[in-house]
Amino acid sequence: MRLDVISIFPDYLAPLDLSLIGKARRDGLVDLRVHDLRDFAHDRHRTVDDTPYGGGAGMVMSAQPWSEALTDVLGTADAPGERPVLIVPGPGGQPFDQAMARELSGRGWLAFACGRYEGIDERVYEWAAERMEVRVVSLGDYVLNGGEVAAMAMIEAVVRLLPGVVGNAESLVEESHEGGLLEYPLYTKPAEWDGRPVPEVLLSGDHARIERWRHQQRLERTAARRPDLLPRSGALGVDGLA
Ligand code: 6GU
């Protein structure tokens, strides 16, 4: 998978060299290229923003550096006519979720346009949409200072779904959100710690009973923390498995 990230803080993306994503890069599964938006500003101060028309607080990112940076990225397509999906992280976007991560993991090329300040000149979205698929995507209902941390979260969620990135494919199936329920609680040795025993069922060796207990725990945990997920999960209630 090819990934391009455009930002005025390219160093912010340095953690993508670490851990699972770093290994995927070294293994050649991911071709990640980070671009400095200021390389596409041409004045002495490498300015990428200006005051908003109509007034208001803060600054707006100018169209010109963005169109040049995106043109530069498009010019490095591996095959003629190939285009990335352009993801613009922002709190005003469509909510990111596991289904979107899975869909994006099937696309060969993603580009992330990380905005700062109040946002990017609206004409950049129009310009880009004439050249590639554009999606404004939000991590949730809160505000970050810029798109970089959000882009990293989305990249991690997408890349770990690529074949060969997560060693144990089974660990992708069981986890929270795949299947619409939160994960069950986990325990490891010792069997008693701080006076707290591991639930007896997990030591029983009765795999059918363990499966029922884990499913029950997933339902209870989802009802307590994320009741909004229950209708979609197909769960009928606490005895839905019976
Ligand atoms: Cl994707 N970007 C920014 N800047 N803020 C956010 C967000 C994204 N998701 C939630 N808040």
TrEMBL record:
Organism taxonomic ancestry: Bacteria, Bacillati, Actinomycetota, Actinomycetes, Micrococcales
GO terms for biological process, alphabetical: tRNA N1-guanine methylation
Family, as annotated: Belongs to the RNA methyltransferase TrmD family.
This enzyme's EC code(s): 2.1.1.228
Source domain of life: Bacteria
Enzyme class: transferase
Keywords: Cytoplasm, Methyltransferase, S-adenosyl-L-methionine, Transferase, tRNA processing
Recorded name of the encoding gene: trmD
Name assigned to this protein: tRNA (guanine-N(1)-)-methyltransferase
Function: Specifically methylates guanosine-37 in various tRNAs.
Organism of derivation: Marihabitans asiaticum
Catalytic activity: guanosine(37) in tRNA + S-adenosyl-L-methionine = N(1)-methylguanosine(37) in tRNA + S-adenosyl-L-homocysteine + H(+)
Keyword S-adenosyl-L-methionine included in the entry's annotation: yes
Subunit structure: Homodimer.
GO cellular component: cytosol
UniProt KW S-adenosyl-L-methionine keyword: yes
Gene Ontology molecular functions: acyltransferase activity, transferring groups other than amino-acyl groups; tRNA (guanine(37)-N1)-methyltransferase activity
Residues holding S-adenosyl-L-methionine: G115, L139, G140, D141, Y142, V143, L144
Annotated compartments: Cytoplasm
